[in-house]
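Suppose a classmate hands you a notebook page containing two proteins, each written out with its sequence and a corresponding row of structure tokens. How would you begin to make sense of it? This section walks through that situation. The first entry is reproduced here exactly as it would appear on such a page.
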Amino acid sequence: MISFDMSLIAIAGMSLGACALAIICMLTISMRGLKRRYLGLESSVATMRRELEVVGSISLRTGRRVKRIEHDYAGVADRVELVELRGPAPSFDEAIDSARRGNDSGRLTQQFGLSRVEAELVTRLHGRRRTA
């Protein structure tokens, strides 16, 4: 009976050993797959990090360009507002006639709502010539 019990214990031990060996093999295969997946993800993260750096660089350059454009055209809104405030102002033809009658650029600015530069241009082009 003892030899039968020993045989049974030996068979059970061998069965447990075989099961343990099978489990170890399965775990090893599973770990290899997980390692491959981890390395793939790590590579993807590195690629995404590089792409994010490129996007950040582009974003920074775009922000600088936007600031430069805002700075360059900051006065445009003010100038548009001035033009809109003029409303139906007398035409440039009337300002030219006034300059021909001898009015200076300051008067043209007040009377016709021209900007200083516009009034000076009209005066230079159409104003009376001063003789010394």
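The notebook's second entry, a different protein, reads as follows.
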Amino acid sequence: MSLSKSIAKNTIIHTLGRFSASAIGVFVVALMTRYLGTTGYGHFATIMAYLFFFTIIGDLGLYLVTVNELGHAEDKKKYFSNIFTLRLVSTTVLMIIACALIWVFPYPLIVKLGVLIFAGSSFFMMLDQILIALFQSQMKTHFPALAEVVGKLLILGLVILAIQLKLGFLFVVLTFSLGLLIHFIINLSFARRLLKFKLDFDKKIWQSIFKKSWPVATYMIFSMLYFKADTIILSLYHPASSVGIYGAPYKILEVLIVFPAIFMGLVSPHLSKSWAEKNLENFKRIWQKAFDALSIIIWPMIFGTLVLAGPIINLIAGSQFAASIPVLQILIVATGVIFLAHLSTFSVVAVNKQKSMMKYYILAAALAMAFYFIFIPKYSYYAAALITILIELFILIASWLMVRRTTKIKTSFSNNLKSLFISLIMAGILYLALNLYGLGLTNFGLLVSLILGAIIYLGGLYLFGLFKKEMITEFIKK
């Protein structure tokens, strides 16, 4: 199977698994928002945002290092054993620190207890992420896809049980730790079938890993500041209900940006290999195909959500989250920027320019923190959402220019512009359908709109030659 088809097939498999799991996750969010309300869900969003800081620090850049370097390692078993052990140690230490420091913050007791419980979710999620890097390096993405669906189904069942028995907020939080534990156990069993790794400490390997990972880890820490600090700062200046209103559409953003992470996790090793082999033509070819693939997804996602934000929020969070509609419309633009930024930031690592990018990540974090503290106290979640766009756009431009200067690559925007044009037509028709034919905020209207939008967009791709029947038949045969 060709590289393009192998990447496409594994992306589709993993994405279908993640989509199925995300669909279950969205249903879980729908149940939680209705059960907990804006204040309760605000507490939950605060817990997740707080622990996110520590999971990023505990990552140490190991995920990207594993994805890019595992394929080149002479002794894959020993190399991965050391990376897994390092992740286990760093995650344990950071979760202990997180649980200790939460008592310093001026949060209500229920949030502090929630952090102690949800720390288990973060712990298993961090260990699981390093296993996913192994699956991606070997193009075996059907394993984590299955594990995630099973884990999410368990969470769904336990959340329904908590609601039916009225077990309260803390039990709802506990369901995530239990679900992610099962998710991790399944992935661990699959991973050890592929590679019989174990706990190991080799000083030379750890030093080699740190040498490659610290620039990535530093970038992730600073990127964390502008990605999640908004929720924390919002929680310090505004009531939990405001955090809930921001947290519901932000959860949609977090679900969507899983796709470019999966996609680039599969593409990045090949970019890295092409660059290491000085095969610039192959690097440019892979880059262009990755850019075209992301372009085809970004534009309909943005314009479709701008039009359908009302029914989407109504379906996922309920009518009490109506204030989240304009927030979602802002954040979906940020999501599109993040999609493209995944291509350029992963490519920065592939061409070994992560150290050169460091100053831009530091500047982005500094600007974000300054803007958050200046504007969030006065403008609440609107400021948080708009600043997210600006900072993500800054990172996209900086990383894009870094890759272009390094590789001299010239990107064709032909397919990107075609996708934009088709998406505008689709959005226009959907807007008329919603407003002229009274589909409104109903779930039925959303379903009809999604089907109509898919038909219009896929038809447009076919007419413009971006989607051909031969692509499907050839893909299936392979």
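A careful reader of the second entry would note: Residues 3-412 form one domain.
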